[in-house]
Amino acid sequence: MNQISTTVSSEIPAKRIALLKGDGIGPEIVSAAVRVLERIADRYGHSFWFQEYLIGGQAVESCGSPLPEETLAACREADCVLLGAVGGPAYDSLPAPQRPETGLLALRSELGLYANLRPVRLFPQLAQTSPLRLERIASGFDILIIRELTGGIYFGKRGRRQGCFGEEAFDTENYSRMEIERITHVAFQAAMKRNRRLISVDKANVLESSRLWREVVHDISGGYPDVDSSDMLVDNAAMQLIRDPAQFDVLLTSNLFGDILSDEASQLTGSIGMLASASLGEGRSGLYEPIHGSAPDIAGKDIANPIATILSAAMMLRHSLGLEQEADAIEAAVENVLDQGLRTADIAIPGITAIGTQAITEAVVSAL
Ligand code: IPM
Ligand code: MG
What we know:
The protein is 39% helix and 20% strand. The protein is an alpha/beta fold. The chain has two domains: 1-116 and 275-368, Isopropylmalate Dehydrogenase; 131-268, Isopropylmalate Dehydrogenase (3-Layer(aba) Sandwich). The strands form two sheets. Strands 1-3-2-4-13-12-5-6-11-9-10 form an eleven-stranded mixed sheet, with helices on both faces. Strand 9, helix 6 and strand 10 (228-233) form a beta-alpha-beta unit. Helix 5 packs across helix 6 (208-221), helix 7 packs parallel to helix 8 and helix 10 (324-339) packs across helix 11. The protein starts with a strand and ends with a helix.
């Protein structure tokens, strides 16, 4: 544990934010978000108490587990958790229990964070970096992917065995009615606050787990008559995202389908380096992390895009700390920086000189 900062003290107890920097670019992007949060604390008179804990490969290296007990206990205690990224080629050959990803999945599961919110919106300033032709995204798009996060094939029974043709491996997609019900309510409630359109993604033409998923979504839809809801097969959803992203408002998915579709959708915005996420459950601490990975190839070079993590910090202020105005301010500051034409390498277009992680962070801080 490493306490890195305590800002202005006030009557109100400081909000405790656990920082899990993780691997690869994790440390750089979390430090960037902390810079921005410190500026928010100064400007709005809040106290944030940041404490760092180990997760992922760095945790395996120092104590043999990708989710040390101390980290989990601290995350349970904290008001919220901000995470960078985990994983890297150095850890790819570790046995499953020690893999960095296992630590992240265990953290989500232990904290009961079954609802993962992944907003995918096109910043108009970045329309030219989207791989879609401008006329296809002329009206922009603003999608909220609600990904179930603690069930399905990521947590089902898996293993290896001897079959008729030698060694076999299996993973199991398993969903209970209860798991589907609670994530479906989250999705409908989100849709009520947005454009009241919800598409539930499944593979009900093949998978039994998807047939139960669809049944439950239909049952629950009756309670939300104001939301226009329908189903879409996942293969079609993958295609429709590219064909016409503006047709989507809220997209409800299982764990696996949401993982895949959110990476796909992120690319439509220009870069996965722009996409934030919030993971919420019944417990008190939410987990906030960019949807991208640890990008070990660019780690430590001051070229990673910190905006996804900065926007995750904004989601944290909004969802866990009730600081809506401050969250809006961070989002506006990011837009301001984009308006100024400042870009990291992943969102730069020919003719624009990219700036580094720290430089773009300072630009966001100055815009606040
Ligand atoms: C994500 C990531 C993780 C996931 C990995 C790192 C386990 O891809 O958050 O999308 O699959 O959930
Ligand atoms: Mg992913």
